[in-house]
UniProtKB/TrEMBL annotation:
Organism listed in the record: Diaporthe ampelina
GO molecular function: electron transfer activity
GO BP: any one term: fatty acid beta-oxidation using acyl-CoA dehydrogenase
Keywords for this protein: Electron transport, Mitochondrion, Transport
Protein name according to UniProt: Probable electron transfer flavoprotein subunit beta
Entry function: The electron transfer flavoprotein serves as a specific electron acceptor for several dehydrogenases, including five acyl-CoA dehydrogenases, glutaryl-CoA and sarcosine dehydrogenase. It transfers the electrons to the main mitochondrial respiratory chain via ETF-ubiquinone oxidoreductase (ETF dehydrogenase).
Cellular component GO terms, alphabetical: mitochondrial matrix
Pfam families assigned: ETF
Source species, domain of life: Eukaryota
Length: 258
C-alpha cells in the first residue's frame, strides 16, 4: 500500500447545541452573533484520519493530512481546530458570508483539490447538520470515478490497497471492501473526537494555512436551487384529558377520528 495522502473537508456550521432561528427576511436561519463550530460529522473525519496515523493501521503509513473548508474568513477557526486535533495543514477557500455552495459545487471544488493535492483517500462527514443534504461524498466519488463507502462506523486497512468499511444498516451491519483511491463518509459511531489541548492549539497557529478562491480551482458558484421562503414549524397543539372511556370516544367522534 502506498502512503496515504488524506484530504478531509470540514464545514463551519451553527453549533449543534444552539437552537436555530429563522431570520426576519425568512431567507434562512439567523447567523449573526450565533455560536459556530465544526460540523460534528467532520470532527469524526478529522479524528479518524489522525487515528489512522497514530495507530499505524495503514501499511503504507500516512504521508499527509490536509483539511479544506470553503466559507468566509471565520471558517479558518474550524481549520485551526482541525490542525490542533492533528491535521498537518489546511486550505481555506474564501466564499462570502451567506453565499452558500450547493453540494455539486462543493464536489467539483473537492475534485480539483484532490487532483492538486494528489490525495488518495478522502474522508468527510456523511452530511452537514445545517442542510442535511448527504450528497457531497457521493457526488465527489462520481466525479473522480472512485469507489465510495458511506456512513462508516469502522474503517480497516487490509493487504495491498484494500480498505474494508463497515456501516450500520437496519437489522445489522454491512461491510464493503474497495481499493484506494476512494471516498469514505463518516457516521456518528465511528469514533469519539478528541478535545484539542492548549499546547496543540498553540502549535496549530504555526501550521500552514493556504488561502484560495473558487477561481483558483477553476470553479464557479452555479446555483441551481432558489430558496423561496424559510419559516418556523407550526407550534404543536396542547393535549387534552378525558375522564373515562366514554369521554374518549366522544372526543374522537368530535375530531372525526371515528
Amino acid at each position: 500500500m502506498s502512503a496515504l495522502r488524506i484530504l478531509v473537508p470540514v464545514k463551519r456550521v451553527i453549533d449543534y447545541a444552539v437552537k436555530p432561528r429563522v431570520n426576519k427576511a425568512q431567507t434562512g436561519v439567523e447567523t449573526a452573533g450565533v455560536k459556530h463550530s465544526m460540523n460534528p460529522f467532520d470532527e469524526l473525519s478529522v479524528e479518524e484520519s489522525v487515528r489512522i496515523r497514530e495507530k499505524k493501521s495503514a501499511p503504507g503509513g500516512v504521508e499527509d493530512i490536509c483539511v479544506i473548508s470553503a466559507g468566509p474568513p471565520k471558517a479558518q477557526d474550524v481549520l485551526r481546530t482541525a490542525m490542533a486535533m492533528g491535521a498537518d495543514r489546511a486550505i481555506h477557500v474564501d466564499v462570502k458570508e451567506g453565499e452558500d455552495l450547493e453540494p455539486l459545487t462543493v464536489a467539483k471544488l473537492l475534485r480539483k483539490a484532490v487532483e492538486a493535492e494528489k490525495s488518495n483517500l478522502v474522508i468527510l462527514g456523511k452530511q452537514s447538520i445545517d442542510d442535511d443534504a448527504n450528497q457531497t461524498g457521493q457526488m465527489l466519488a462520481g466525479l473522480l470515478g472512485w469507489p465510495q463507502a458511506t456512513q462508516a462506523s469502522s474503517v480497516q486497512f487490509g493487504e495491498g490497497d484494500s480498505v474494508s468499511v463497515t456501516k450500520e444498516v437496519d437489522g445489522g451491519v454491512e461491510t464493503v471492501r474497495a481499493k484506494l483511491p476512494m471516498v469514505v463518509t463518516t457516521d456518528l459511531r465511528l469514533n469519539e473526537p478528541r478535545y484539542a489541548s492548549l499546547p496543540n492549539i498553540m502549535k496549530a497557529k504555526k501550521k500552514k494555512l493556504d488561502k484560495k478562491t473558487l477561481a483558483d480551482f477553476g470553479v464557479t458558484n452555479e446555483r441551481r436551487l432558489k430558496v423561496l421562503k424559510v419559516t418556523e414549524p407550526a407550534p404543536r397543539q396542547g393535549g387534552g384529558k378525558v375522564d373515562d372511556v366514554d369521554g374518549l370516544v366522544s372526543k374522537l367522534k368530535e375530531l372525526g377520528a371515528i
